[in-house]
Amino acid sequence: MKTLKFGLSTLGFAIGMATAGLSMSVSAASPTLSKEDFEKANLMYFQRCAGCHGVLRKGATGKNLEPEAMLKKGQARLEKIISYGTEGGMNNFDDIFSKEEIADIATYIQMTPPVPPEMSLTQMRSHTKEYVAPKDYPTKPLHDGNWKNFFVVIERDAGKAAIIDGDTKEIITHIDTGYAVHVIKGTEHHKVDHAKDVGRFWYTIGRDGKVNKIDLWQTPDKMLVAETKMAYDARDIAVSGDGKYVIAGGYWPPHFVIMDAETLNPLKVVSTRGYNTKGDYVNEARVAAIYTAPNESSFIVAVKETGQMLQVDYNDLDNLTITAIASAEFLHDGFFDPSGRYFQIAANASNKMVVIDTKDRELEMMIEVDSLPHPGPGANWIDEKCGPVAGTTHLGTGLVSVWGNDPINHPDQAWKLCYEVETDGPGAFIRTHETSDYVWADQLKHPEPEVQQSVQVFDKKTREIVKTIRVTEEEGKAALHMEFNDDGTEVWVSVWNRADASNPTGEIVIYDAKTLKEIKRIKGLTTPTGKFNVSNRMNHKT
């Protein structure tokens, strides 16, 4: 199949600040909406568009949507663009919004962008809730399940997280979380600091800024033990190596917040507003990826619009040591190499993979790749010619780029493209396992249902695609995001029901990792997105 190029959809899913005290500042000559229609359009924009175009509509991965430019395009043209998308740009939305909703959004983006409110530590703390007191935490699991082979699953449009037993394939519980949870992370093994009961506690971040703490040792009805709120719009979270702190990053307000991991009480807030790599001041400097450096007592914080990577020491919160490392815009998602020293992150609108040396706290390299790299949780493996390598899918083209990532033992191959694999369509996620012969890539961003519903598998040795797996053929559904079980014998693939996203009509399809044959389907899930195996994640298996 011919490779097609497409840009990033405007599906930002940033939660609506429409009711959070926004003002309707519109000049007399500008298009207008009723208060009710304005609030609806504002909510739709934040849910579907702000992730790419920004809260203030100054653009990021998506184009600038400020009134001056939008007024020149006019109502009719804007409605057409929103309905049908653009070549090499955004996807169509005529199957998501009604004609009336499209018209209202077109009018809305010609109006002055409302400025959302800020959020103080005092406000954050007012949202902190304790469902199970730390003194009442069990000292051993209160169930017989193999919790290290549990899967923590995002049910995006339901605002829930499902816990699934990887041995029995049974759904243990559905836990209420924030709106459109984007990331779930747990405690991990660390080279310097050592948390107690590694893998037990997991933390979610919703796109409404709500943080939830999950205890996998509890009975299903008590696994949600605490929650707070640190922003109106957020994307990522991480846990310190010693398990004492949780850090979460805001899209709005643009800041990161460090919380007590036991209680989720917010302790420290740091603004990320500042200057980009060109020297321009950025008010909306959003925090994208956040990770804990496996070998250092520090967090890695990616500031999307400024192109700055911040390495934040967590040993002394009163006197934070922050190293700013300039790279490229717009930083999005990333993963560590197997050594835990080098952080590999997509600067997707710059078509680069940025490599940060967390030991020396400096920019190691910027690797030129194709259109809009998006590795998701990423993938590392061994190539016979290039040695240790990593790979990424792309939102803008059907291509997997693979580069060397071992500068110590394979310096001639390090941070250079090793090879590329052409796929049928653009994708958002790539995964493998140390025991597997294969690398899996989805094709979520392709507009054709047959491609969007399929994942492709290529051989690590031959570098050739060995199978295209049609995960679903049901109308309105799409396949995305792969995860292996603890021993690498199974691959779990999510199925969204795009046409009925708010109901439990999604599923997870499980495949034999060697034969690539279907084993089982787990039904009764609502838009299952990321699936994170406890053992793999606590041991940094990417």
TrEMBL record:
Gene3D superfamilies: C-terminal (heme d1) domain of cytochrome cd1-nitrite reductase, Cytochrome c-like domain
Residue span, Cytochrome c domain: 36-113
Entry GO MF terms: electron transfer activity; heme binding; metal ion binding
Pfam families (UniProt xref): Cytochrom_D1 (PF02239), Cytochrome_CBB3 (PF13442)
Signal peptide: 1-28
Protein keywords: Heme, Iron, Metal-binding, Signal
Protein name: Nitrite reductase
